[in-house]
Amino acid sequence: MRKRYIALFLAIAVVISCFAGCSANNSDTDVTTTISTTAKEKDNSTFKLSYTQSDSLDPFKAKTQNNQVLASLVFESLFDLDESYEPVTNIATGYAFTNDKTLRVDINPQLKFSDGSDLDIEDVVFSINAAKKSPAYGSALTCINSVEANGNSVIINLKYANPFAVNLLTFPITSVKDDENGFPVGNGRYYYANQDGTVVLKANTENGFDPYLTTITLVNIAAADSIDNAVNIGNISYAFRDMSADTSKRLSCAKKPVAMNNLVFIGINSISGVTADAQIRRAISLAVDRTVLAESAYAGYASVATSTFHPDFKTVGDINLFSDTADSSTARQALIQSGYTDKELSLSILVDTNENKLSCANLLKSQLENAGFRVTIEKKSIKEYRRRVSNIEFDLYIGEIKLSDDMSLYPFFDSKGGARYGINDKEMTCDDIYKKYLSGDEELGKFILAFNDEMPYIPILYKKGMICYSKALKGDMQGYYGNFFSNIDSWNFIS
Q: CA 71, CA 204: separation in Å to the nearest integer?
């Protein structure tokens, strides 16, 4: 609920500052007049967002990024994550692990939805179960086995030990019942409403939320290219772009990078071929100049991966397992010591048609050749690329995976993980050590050492997204991934 009280706090601060100013000045300034001039000028028509009319507005049924982004305005979550991936209470008032697989989350019992109905434990249980089955949140919540109500708390039973499971509880909490117009109901800063047959967002001012933008118009724009064009010419005021395509060059509006947990990595065939040798895999990692890849292949919309975890994830501390620049001389020395001949040091890089990843592959080719490898690039259609990755028909491949906010590495270390291809789990130990680390049976340092020795895959960078918005929009854009509209109460079009 903290977001709702930001505006109220600011309003109080303004009033206090006005009185303070009057007391320090002996002039006959009318205090009432001074306060009234600071009242927000309400705007019920200018601000526009894109949505997909053919998709559901229910956050657990929505399939498009358009409608999933809107959810952060209409619904609150149990926790928010700050920009260091630290959980901050919202609907929840606190949490505790009763054992390594059981998480208790305490709920504020005095909350209400935007329609005036009580926000009950049953709504929280319903939302968790719905999120587990949803397109937007389901894959991240596979570690949740079951949930049950217990007074003003919910008990979440986990399939495996996960000390960072609370980071996953950032999905919307909705009412069990829709409103009279069939819209899903939340307790967020805005709510869905029908205005003359058109869907809009209305400010939920019952709990002190006091924005300039009291009504947000929703414009039906589904295609990604059309969204880019719409924000350029002002047909919509604001959009989030996940940079799945290189959109930065097409956008002439105001822009702000947004950190995401999308890891771009080098997948390695550690089962067969020259890359089955751990020393070769470490030499490849040493040869990579991650800074060049982030700045050139991704035009600066990326953070260098210097460890197995996102650099903003400070819970595990600062870990610098990889250099951000290439160490070609050490890589060449490792190749000499490996005993392989120049002819044997031949690699191919599998890549799909994505512009950023293709640029990454070309730069990587040059970096590896500088260290002593002979490299070819195999560019394939997305369908063929996926087939070859799943059948481990590669030496190296450029991969990308969206990791969940608990920083789980299970996509690499689980038998059903989406990034497990090529990892020789029969010969490696780091996967087992990682699972023991989560359960508290091993130290993080032992996992890091095992990872460095075995190099099952090579983290390169974390891709960034982008907030883009109209140049006419005023205010400090403090939105970030998962909280795109964090200070929307201060946004305005006042000239």
A: 14
The per-residue pLDDT for 347 is 97
Q: Is the pTM of this model over 0.85?
A: yes
Instruction: Give per-10-residue mean pLDDT for the chain (495 aa).
Output: 42 39 38 48 94 96 94 96 92 96 96 95 98 95 96 97 96 96 96 94 93 97 88 92 70 88 97 96 97 94 94 86 94 92 94 95 98 97 97 98 95 94 95 96 95 97 93 88 91 90
What DSSP line would sit under 233-259, residue for residue? HTSSSEEEE--SS--GGG--SEEEEEE
In this structure, which amino acid lies at residue 88? V
Q: Would you state the structure tokens that stand for residue 337, as one six-digit string?
A: 């010591």
Residues 6+ apart with CB under 8 A from 490: 10, 211, 212, 475, 476
Residues 6+ apart with CB under 8 A from 176: 122, 123, 126
Q: Which two tokens stand for residue 303?
A: 């953070």
Angle, CA 377 vertex, CA 375 and CA 382 arms, to 5°: 150
Q: Is 142 exposed, middle or buried (0-12, 13-18, 19+ CB in 10 A)?
A: middle
CB 83 within 8 A of CB 480: yes
CA 209 from centroid of its chain's CA atoms: 26
144-150 β-sheet, strand order: 92-99, 102-107, 153-158, 144-150
Q: How far apart are CA 359 and CA 80, in angstroms?
A: 35
Q: Do residues 218 and 201 make contact, with C-beta atoms less than 8 angstroms apart?
A: yes
First to last CA, the chain: 31
Q: Tell which residue, 57, 67, 180, has the closest CA to residue 117.
A: 180
Q: How many CB atoms are located within 10 Å of the residue 166 CB?
A: 24
